[in-house]
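Q: Hi! First time doing this. I have a protein sequence and I read that you can turn it into a structure. Is that right? Here it is:
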Amino acid sequence: MLLWIGFAVVTAAVVAVLVRPLMSQDREAATDDEANLAVYRHQLREIDSDLERGLITSGEAQAARTELGRRILRMADRVDPTAGELPVEKSHSAQQRNIVSRFAVYGAAALLPLVSIAVYLAVGAPELPGLPHAERLQAAKESRSVDELVGLVETRLRAKPDDGEGWDVIAPVYMRLQRFADATQAYASAIKYLGETERRLAGFAEAAVLANNGLIIPPARKAYERLAAMNPARPEPKFWLATAKEQDGDLAGARADLEAMIASAPADVPWRKLVETRIAELGAKIAGGNRSLSSTANVAAPSPDEAAKGTPASGASAAGTTTSGPLASSPSASGSMASGGTGPTAADVAAASQMTEVQRLGMINDMVSRLAKRLDANGADLEGWKRLAQAYKVLGRDGDARAALAKARHNFRDDAAALQSLDELASALGLKS
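A: Yes, that's right. Below is the predicted 3D structure, encoded as structure tokens:
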């Protein structure tokens, strides 16, 4: 309401400034003529005075009067020299002009706010709520306070790294700031100094998964195993442990775990549909003789839309940037993308466990490259294209994932079922255009 009052005051002030010179124009013109007549009359009196004092001769006085008379007569065409008013015929014309001028002024004054409001409604955003200056200052102050608080806690923890309470406080803050590697370290330290709780185990596992692009690395798997033992009724450890089996290539084991999870859950749980969909997908892969991707393809990670609808996971997804958390140096579940698409051997896992994070990433990229070359040579492998797109997505290479799906669509352009499967995968990966 105060905003509109301010608009009204400003509009009135602008209209007054614009109207004033227009309203006074005719009056100012008449005032100028009257002033000239007054000057001429004064000059006539001065001529008589000068003649009486002998300053001028009678001939000079007569000549001056004649000249002033001519000027007064010319002025009389516009103003009556005796009354200072406009002649009747001139007055009527002037009044008509004044009426037209006044209507023009009033019309402009009325249109100005109307046009302004119309333009504001067309290009402005009147539906947006107000944000007073005080609230903006308070929001900025609170934001600075969070950053300052984090800095203070970090300084204290550097000086006293065994402060379990400090780690426990800052871990959720790191999660909200999407500093997942730091959150993993914080939860691990809180567990080390304060002991395990459901909240800390769940937070650590979620942070570790997010810090590794959705991969269920061994420390996260162990955390979920302990969480499941601590509270068997919690759904997220069951879901993510099944996901870990799928990443290892154990599709049958993953499906069995999800089926057991559904069997023991109430009928109205919000995540039932998602789990049933995953069971069906795993069944289709098993029936088609296709083993799952290696650890680079977290095919079970829900999309953001699925998570918002009630994923039983604790919030981890395959989004974000690959980050080396404090426990990320532990071996992740590694697989092989060899031409046959089989899962990792025991030797592969043993070798991967001795690698650094950079070495593991290089191995993964090499496997993905080999799979891409094989598909370029033989593009008739639908499941291979799907594995490649999933692997690119997990590696954060969304452009390559879209390109792989585009090539697959081209190769299977005459296969309606294959195209539908590719569209469903693109939607699940958040790559549907």
